[in-house]
Amino acid sequence: MTNKVLTLVLLFLIQLGAIAQKQPNIIFIMSDDHAADAIGAYGSRFSKFDITPNLDNLAAEGIRFENAYCNNSICTPSRASIISGQYPQTNGVLDLDHKLDTDKQYLPIELKKLGYSTAVVGKWHLKNEPVNFDYYKVLPSQGKYFNPVFLEKGKGEWKKNKVKTEGHSTDVITDISIDYLKNVDKSKPFFLMHHYKAPHDMFENAPRYDEFLADAEIPEPSSLYYQPNWGSEGTRGKNDSLLNYIGTSISDRHMYRNYNKFWFDDTLKGRENSAHIAYQLYLKRYLRCVKGVDDNLGRLFDFLKKEGLWDNTVIIYTGDQGMMLGEHDLQDKRWMYEESMQMPFIVHYPEGIESGQVTDLLINNTDFAPTMIELAGGKAPKYMQGKSFIKTLEGKKEKNWRTATYYRYWMHIIHHYVPAHFGVRTKDYKLIFYYAKHYLPESEFKGHYWAKTYYGIQNETPHTWEFYDMKNDPEELHNRYNDPAYQDIIADLKKQLKEQREELNETDENYPEIQAIVKKHWDD
Questions:
Q1: What does the pLDDT average to over 381-387?
Q2: Which pLDDT tens digit goes with each residue over 296-354?
Q3: Of 34, 195, 239, 362, which one has the greatest count of Cβ atoms within 10 A?
């Protein structure tokens, strides 16, 4: 081999090494049920309490997305969409009863092809073993807040060999991730999914936060109390009917599930200020868990800086969905209402993202995997239905981007008495249809734990439409579906909704009873 050829080969290898070095490390951080409003950078009514200084700094030094949404506001389906880049009827995970097939753990599969070490730590909640990660140490199912046990790769058969730990889960999960990063192979880039259990209900904070916000008066949402123009018969019901008990409430409105009953054993029932007392307790417990998450992120970020990993590491922060924090007298998530559907989404990367950016690009959780794959130097595979928004991260404009994002909640009446529904959200408007029926026929209910647990699941609640002008009514206080001034806009949204359902394989061809309901009420 001549000297000239050797020189060219050497230059090629040097260039190849330089390219490899430019691949960033990626840490995907996700908390459970962390609403965007519970992050100071999003400017909500909680911002004055300075609960999330580390996340606020992360946003100030990176890019914050104002219009990030899940396509199903419940843990397992949202996580399945994040890791597969696909919508529920494509990846097969419609609700909490389904497992994501191991061959659809697409994100770690694709990143390993690009030379990444892959790991997941904390809450997994996709039931099947995360076999496509090089390392995992995950909570079984929901896991415990205190002294959690973990399922760890190499420690025995899946779900049988449980590793014990001591402490609060948020602290323990951070410790595990830091230990992993200390020992990870630094000769190649790493991808870590760092998932907290907090602030998932039942909101069990570490004892050191017991006095945090103890003397504070948490501001109430304007919609905590009755709003005559909000919702529809499908959501707020009628007098003297089961519908008065749709949606777990803060007040004692809901007969079976409300925060008064749960924490006070009906001792506040009928008291004029019962909703206020219950709301204060609900929010303080929740925000104490959020504070624990932010403090631990401070620990993780300090470690990355100390180890020289900060500048070349993409840090993404999100929640697996939003959370109703008293709005419309509702708790939990599941709804297509903004607080439940919106996800916080912050990206920080000193070597590749200009600081101080805010974007209104309309993204959803199927877009996360394609974007991370392109950040790693790859190309999003065609089987993923989401789209990469890497151009936005680079400060450029996206081409042919979506104008509406699709949403679907399947678990009719289960757990928190939320009727099944679907819809679309644009930057300015939101259209929701409550088809209000479980996807399984009643003949197949037998054998499911929820069949006899939740009163009314076998019933169809009213099939209704709701429409909100999000630009002029961001708190969704006025359902304008029957307002003549909006009929052209609503007609266009129905067109977009139908097109998205067809394009995204969400047409319910396996559920003819739902198809019949949709067809019957489409022109209502």
A1: 97
A2: 999 999 999 999 999 999 999 999 999 999 999 999 999 999 999 999 999 999 999 99
A3: 34
Sorted by where each begins, the domain ranges of the chain are 23-208+285-395, 406-521
Instruction: Say yes or no to pLDDT of 12 above 70.
Output: no
Question: What is the distance between the alpha carbons of residues 40 and 53, in angstroms, rounded to a whole number?
Answer: 7
Pull the structure tokens for residue 512.
Answer: 């003819």
Cis bond before residue 419 (omega within 30° of 0):
no
Mapped onto helix, strand or coil, the DSSP state of residue 423 is: strand
User: Contact, 165 vs 143, CB < 8 A?
Assistant: no
The SS3 of residue 111 is helix
CB 445 within 8 A of CB 491: no
C-alpha span between 132 and 372 (Å, rounded): 16
CATH class of residue range 23-208+285-395 = alpha beta
Contact in structure between 243 and 461 (CB atoms under 8 Å) = yes
Contact yes or no for 323/332 (Cβ under 8 A) = yes
Q: Decide if 374 contacts 388 (C-beta within 8 A).
A: yes
Rounded to whole angstroms, the Cα distance separating 119 from 196 reads 14
Q: What is the per-residue pLDDT for 212?
A: 98
Question: Alpha helix (H) ranges present in 342-486?
Answer: 368-375, 390-393
- CB 456 within 8 Å of CB 242: yes
* CATH of 406-521 among 3.40.50.720, 3.30.1120.10, 3.10.450.50, 3.40.190.10: 3.30.1120.10
pLDDT in tens, 243-256: 567 888 888 888 77
φ, ψ dihedrals at 453, nearest 5°: -85, -35
CB neighbour burial string for 156-166, b if at least 16 within 10 angstroms, e if fewer: eeeeeeeeebe
The amino acid sitting at 276 is H
